[in-house]
Amino acid sequence: MGCQEELLVERVCEICQKLSKLESLKPSKDVNMLFTQLVLTCMPPIPIDVNKLPKRVQDMRSKLIKLCGEAEGLLETHFSSLLGSFENPLHHLNIFPYYSNYLKLSLLEFTLLSQHFTHNSIPNKIAFVGSGPLPLTSIVLASFHFTKATFHNYDIDPSANSKAFCLVSSDPDLSKRMFFHTTDIMNVTSGLREFEVVFLAALVGMDKEEKGKVIDHLAKHMAPGALLMLRSAHGARAFLYPIVDPCNDLHGFEVLSVFHPSDEVINSVIVARKFSSPVDSSLDQGGLVTTPPSPSPPPPTMMQIPCKCCEIEAFNPINHNHMIEELAVEEKI
Fold first, then answer.
1. pLDDT in tens, 95-147
2. pLDDT value of residue 302
3. Quick check: is 245 in a domain?
4. Residue 67 belongs to a domain
5. 3-state helix, strand, coil in the chain (%, to 5)
6. Environment class of 134 (CB within 10 Å of its CB; exposed 0-12, middle 13-18, buried 19+)
7. Residue at 310 is within a domain
8. Where does the UniProt annotation place the signal sequence (predicted)?
């Protein structure tokens, strides 16, 4: 490791130690301060490969991701309860401190997905796995981007779904288009074939093995040709969220797009398409496609295609200075 990477690891370990000593990770002055420090530490584009770090640092990272997941859940629960106290909760979403990040992330995901639609293939039925008590991605996508689609939100926690339903129940439009299912996605089989797009939340599968099982389950039961939208992490941001390796972790899918933000949007985004036939899924990931695939898949071949997945940093569909205007335009469309 170079000096920059060593300083980063030292700082992250120090913050992790402080977080571990807190009695609770519920929103508070100390919790907010430490997580703000952690995010600001991990945000710069430091070229660090967390998979090559010493075991003690790997163990610390695993612990830290779980702490981040717990804190994120508590934060969302707190604000979902607060929003639920309003007569029209969706009119007050901006009180959530990271609402603007969700606007940007959802616009990014919609833009990447749109590259792989045709006019006749705009999705009507979308699933979000791991929606939680504050399903902002589904709400933003349903409100501004997929304004005719139905959203089926899956979460294993009944209280999370109860809080989430409370947020949309008073809205005459979203209450008819958003549904909440309390179940483990590993128990959903034939139902997954109904969706043209499936979103997988970053914190569904807190380690590589667990996330791999979920992805394999989706590969087995999603409809052929359906799109999978995954959230991952890159560089130092991998101390905050689990990594999905587009070259090795997406068996059964063709990787279409990979994007690593360099701004305050923390999550990397991967778009993949379920192979149309069982034969196709025997191929290794064959690179990164950044233009819409042809209507019919190429003839299957038994040769192994070397992975050439690359990182795209230059293209950024988000114009920070015109976010409101862009959302307005998307809403009109």
1. 999 999 999 999 999 999 999 987 677 899 999 999 999 999 999 999 999 99
2. 25
3. yes
4. no
5. 50, 10, 40
6. buried
7. yes
8. none
Residue with tokens 């009119």: 91
Instruction: Report the CATH number at residue 227.
Output: 3.40.50.150
Tokens of 202: 């970053």
Distance CA 112, CA 90 (A): 26
The overall pTM is greater than 0.85: no
Residue in this structure with the two tokens 């130092």, named with its chain if needed: 236
- Contact of 135 with 164, CB cutoff 8 Å: yes
Give tens-digit pLDDT for 210-261. 999 999 999 999 999 999 999 999 999 999 999 999 999 999 999 999 999 9
Q: Which of 314, 274, 313 is nearest to 297 (CA)?
A: 274
Residue 186 has pLDDT above 50, yes or no: yes
Cβ 270 vs Cβ 227: under 8 Å: no
Task: Please tell me what DSSP assigns to residue 260.
Answer: -
Q: CA distances (Å), 115 to each of 122, 266, 289, 292, in order? A: 11, 22, 10, 6
In a domain, 42, yes or no: no
Count of structural domains within the chain: 1
Give the residue numbers spanning the domain of 144.
93-332
Q: Token digits for 162?
A: 């109860």
Cα atoms in the 13 Å half-sphere on the side-chain side of 243: 18
Residues 6+ apart with CB under 8 A from 68: 35, 38, 240, 241
Hunting for tokens 């940007």 — which residue is that? 104
pLDDT tens track for 55-96: 999 999 999 999 999 999 999 999 999 999 999 999 999 999
d(CA 306, CA 255): 13
Sign (positive or negative) of CA dihedral 159, 160, 165, 167: positive
Cα–Cα distance measured from residue 264 to residue 40, given in angstroms and rounded to the nearest whole number: 9
As a whole number of Å, the end-to-end CA separation of the chain is 48
Contact call for residues 243 and 213 (beta carbons, < 8 A): no
